[in-house]
Amino acid sequence: MAAAQPLNIVKMKKMKQDGIPLSMITAYDYPSARLAEEAAVDIILVGDSLGNVVLGYDSTIPVTLDDMVYHTRAVARGAEHTFIVADMPFMTYHSGITEALQGIRRLMQEGHAHAVKLEGGAEIADTVRAAVKAGVPVLGHIGLTPQSVNQIGGYRIQGKDAADAERLMRDAKALEEAGAFGIVLELVTEEVAAAITSELKIPTIGIGAGRDCDGQVLVYHDVLKYTSDYMPKRFVKTYGDIGEQIKQSIGQYVDEVKKRSFPSKEHVFTADDSVIQALYGKVASEKTPEKVTSK
Ligand code: KIV
């Protein structure tokens, strides 16, 4: 039987037309990607949230292109049959189209991403257009754009007043017009996200943007509470508590090592008496720990 083909951007548009929701989750390494693929997610995003949830930074700003290439490549090894989108990190697509295309080339050729995501609206439309012209599927990202968090003044909900709603709609249309195959709407009021979704022909994928988007995306570590200092977020639903399970399991392991109850008989490899005889001149049954250590 032929291996399953990843979803593609033509099918994604058709899914919007048919009212079939798109599921997207972030992943950053081989095991997370593999598990996401086995769980039949439609799209994996190698998000620059990598900075927060994997690398221990307090924002996405320190994440580099090298970080993204390295992690995208690991994800691609783990999810060979899933459509993979990789984030272009902070300030890698603002100094000119040539620089942007070089970064995108690395994410796709070295990282093996199928598509890239860029944060921003009308102001990056020319870059999106150039990438699309070069044959690159581009996912837009508007609303709360974490790379601009210092400019926005924190993680604030977007689209709360008429001017903001109009700006978001303008940005969404500019990205669609530039050739983006879809747009992530992050922390956008439900009504504004719904209006953008119905106005566009390309799918919207929401995170904290309500129930009417064409798809939803969540961060892997949020879905699973995969951290010891998980901060509940209203727009996130947690489906597991892996952090607690990991802590308990490691704690139990440490305890058993300290009590010498691990390893037990079923975890050890044994040698024939002849081997022990050759080493110590006695068979194992005659050997005591004291005699062994005094050798
Ligand atoms: O980096 C990321 O994980 C993202 C999602 C929150 C959409 O951009």
Topology (elements, then pairings):
Elements: H1 9-17, E1 22-26, H2 30-38, E2 43-46, H3 50-53, H4 65-78, E3 83-87, H5 97-110, E4 115-119, H6 125-133, E5 138-143, H7 149-152, H8 162-178, E6 182-186, H9 190-199, E7 204-207, E8 215-218, H10 220-224, H11 242-259, H12 273-280, H13 289-294
Parallel strand pairs: 1-2, 1-8, 2-3, 3-4, 4-5, 5-6, 6-7, 7-8
This protein binds 3-methyl-2-oxobutanoic acid.
3-methyl-2-oxobutanoic acid binds next to strand 6.
Give your account of this protein's structure.
This protein is of the alpha/beta class. Helices cover 43% and strands 13% of the residues. The chain has 13 helices and 8 strands. The chain has helices at residues 9-17, 30-38, 50-53, 65-78, 97-110, 125-133, 149-152, 162-178, 190-199, 220-224, 242-259, 273-280, 289-294, and strands spanning 22-26, 43-46, 83-87, 115-119, 138-143, 182-186, 204-207, 215-218. It has an 8-stranded parallel β-barrel with strand order 1-2-3-4-5-6-7-8, surrounded by 7 helices. Helix 6 (125-133) links the parallel strand 4 and strand 5 (138-143). The N and C termini lie far apart (60 Å). Bound molecules: 3-methyl-2-oxobutanoic acid.
Keywords summarizing the entry:
eight-stranded parallel beta barrel, binds 3-methyl-2-oxobutanoic acid, elongated, 13 helices, about 300 residues, alpha/beta
The separation of the N and C termini measures: 60 Å
Q: Helical element count?
A: 13
Helix/strand order, N-terminal first:
HEHEHHEHEHEHHEHEEHHHH
Strand portion:
5-15%
Helix content: 40-55%
Strand tally is 8
Determine the mean pLDDT. 94
Biggest sheet, in brief?
8 strands, parallel, barrel
Main sheet strand line-up: 1-2-3-4-5-6-7-8
Outline type? elongated
Cα radius of gyration in angstroms: 25 Å
Please mark out the parts with pLDDT under 50 across 5 or more consecutive residues, or reply none.
291-295
